[in-house]
Amino acid sequence: MTKLVIQAGQTEKHYWADLWRYRELFYFLAWRDILVRYKQTVIGVAWAVIRPFLTMIVFTLLFSRVAKLPSEGKVPYAIMVFAGMLPWQFFANALAESSNSIVGNSNLISKVYFPRLVVPASSVIVSLADFLISFAVLAGMFVWYHYIPSWRMAVLPGLVALAFLSALGPGLIITALNVKYRDFRYIIPFVVQFGLYASPVGFSSSVIPEKWRLLYSLNPMVGVIDGFRWAICSTAAVYWPGLLLSLGVGTVLLVAGIAYFRRIERTFADVI
User: Fold this and answer.
1) Is 102 within 8 Å of 272 (Cβ atoms)?
2) In angstroms, how far is the first alpha carbon of the chain from the final one?
3) Beta-carbon-side half-sphere exposure of residue 185 (alpha carbons within 13 Å)
4) Residue 146, C-beta contacts closer than 8 angstroms, at least 6 positions apart
């Protein structure tokens, strides 16, 4: 039997080792959140398909038929939009789930010791489940349009990990702020709604003037979405300076999120 001794100052020293020690709690919380998400719902997991699919239809009609914006080479516009919708939907859901995770687990936080970072990190896994379900729709679109993707699809797991880290950093900051200032939960819907149109979801980032593309890539999701399009749309090119900048911004946000979360997590049980 493993004996756990809690002493003053020891949690800081062994924090990252404790994360590995409590990995089973990570799996448990993730599985619990997945079950709760679809419990007592009318159409269950179909919500993970309906939202991105309907948004894809609206964006395809709006940007392709009305605005006459170009697609990525000869790739059908609907596939190009859905290739951008997949990472954005994952990011939006992950940000929403992680930002409210600590408050949503207040009873657990106030009674049991464990590294609090487990909670927001495990909540992002729920969004990964939605992503995998939505990806099946993309496979169906390949069949419908007789589209054959290239070998680039093999890099998608790495791009999913990049989307995960891009969502986790801001999520850690907001969930920590949400513990003390509960009105921060009202910011998330605005950020998600604004970011949907500020990111190249319904259009290709190539339509952005060259002189503004690097500045536009300060949005960390620009690089993620461009990476997904490069992997899924075989004729799409990638703007490497923008991708590297987005990766750098996402890394900075992740480091800042972890640092801020770790600095104030010791007060969670007192104020939650």
Assistant:
1) yes
2) 32
3) 11
4) none
Q: Are 119 and 24 in contact (CB under 8 A)?
A: no
Give percent of the chain above pLDDT 90: 15
Q: Does pLDDT of 15 surpass 60?
A: yes
pLDDT per residue as tens digits for the range 66-120? 778 888 778 889 999 999 999 999 998 888 888 888 888 788 777 777 788 888 8
Q: What's the pTM value of the predicted model, to 2 decimals?
A: 0.86
* b/e sequence 225-253, b meaning 16+ C-beta within 10 Å: bbbbbbbbbbebeebeebbebbbebbeeb
Going from the C-alpha of 189 to that of each of 76, 109, 183, the distances in angstroms are 30, 25, 12
Residue 108's CB: how many other CB atoms inside 10 A?
14
Instruction: Using alpha carbons, select from 159, 196, 151, 192 the residue that is nearest to residue 174.
Output: 192
